[in-house]
Write a structure and sequence with these properties.
This protein is an alpha+beta fold. Helix content is 35%, strand content 13%. Helix 7 links the parallel strand 9 (210-212) and strand 10 (228-229). The structure holds zinc ion.
């Protein structure tokens, strides 16, 4: 029973953070297990920041005026690693948006893990090679553009439902509505100018291969381009964030 319990914890930590399961298994040999886990995790975290670039991944900025992770949690969980090229795409687009709209901060969601190709970043089906990155939408509150804020505390799952549902009900499907999460969503409105500009800049970037946005949003934001794709009805909703891949 204990073996199953610890195995489950290690598995969940691995799925969430890639390296967290190693820290948990290491800590099992010690009496002050939680303390050892925290210290081991911190050591692995620090090691990843230093070692990942040798394997072709760099951390996205966790703090920054123009571009940063939506929450420090993405950095803490080591979900903010991408290839240097993906980082450059994000930085260039964010700087252009901030040049047009001073004071704008572009927020990043899941990137990828620091090591290994082919290990998906759950719950995403992809994000397994550092060449995929999710951007948060920009939002407004009663006073206008709300710098650094997102409707969802996570950046994900605050859906901009179109007037008509894009997809029929399918099974199996990752198109979750996350109804239980909706009470946590703040009353902020999508800021169409900055969001549309960001999508357009990403579409124009020669390094970018595809951008996923849902059809009702494509219409509302008046964006267009060959690289603009609908992810399909069995994949996760994309009316809460922008998915970009090289
Ligand atoms: Zn994505």
């Amino acid at each position: 029973m204990r073996v199953i319990g610890h195995g489950t914890v290690a598995l969940v930590l691995t799925l969430l953070t890639q390296l967290g399961g190693i820290a948990w298994l290491f800590a099992l040999g010690f009496r002050r297990r939680l303390l050892v886990f925290v210290v081991a995790y911190a050591a692995l975290w620090g090691g990843a920041q230093v070692a990942a670039p040798a394997f072709g991944r760099v951390p996205l900025p966790c703090g920054g005026e123009v571009l940063r992770a939506q929450s420090p949690v993405y950095c803490l969980l080591m979900r903010n690693f991408v290839t240097p090229e993906m980082l450059a795409v994000a930085r260039d687009a964010a700087e252009r948006v901030a040049a047009d709209h001073p004071g704008t901060v572009t927020l990043l969601l899941d990137g990828g893990f620091p090591f290994l190709d082919g290990m998906p970043l759950v719950p995403h089906l992809s994000h397994d090679d550092g060449e995929k990155l999710d951007f948060a939408f920009y939002y407004t509150d009663a006073r206008g553009y709300a710098a650094g804020k997102t409707a969802s505390p996570l950046g994900y799952f605050a859906f901009e439902r179109g007037k008509t549902e894009t997809c029929p009900a399918l099974w199996p499907s990752l198109r979750w509505d996350m109804a239980w999460f909706q009470p946590l969503v703040r009353d902020l409105q999508l800021e169409p100018e900055r969001t549309g500009l960001l999508i357009t800049l990403l579409l124009q970037d020669a390094r970018v291969g595809k951008v996923f946005v849902e059809p009702p949003l494509i219409d509302r934001l008046d964006v267009a381009g060959e690289k603009l794709r609908f992810q399909g009805c069995r994949a996760a909703r994309h009316d809460d964030h922008i998915h970009v891949q090289l």
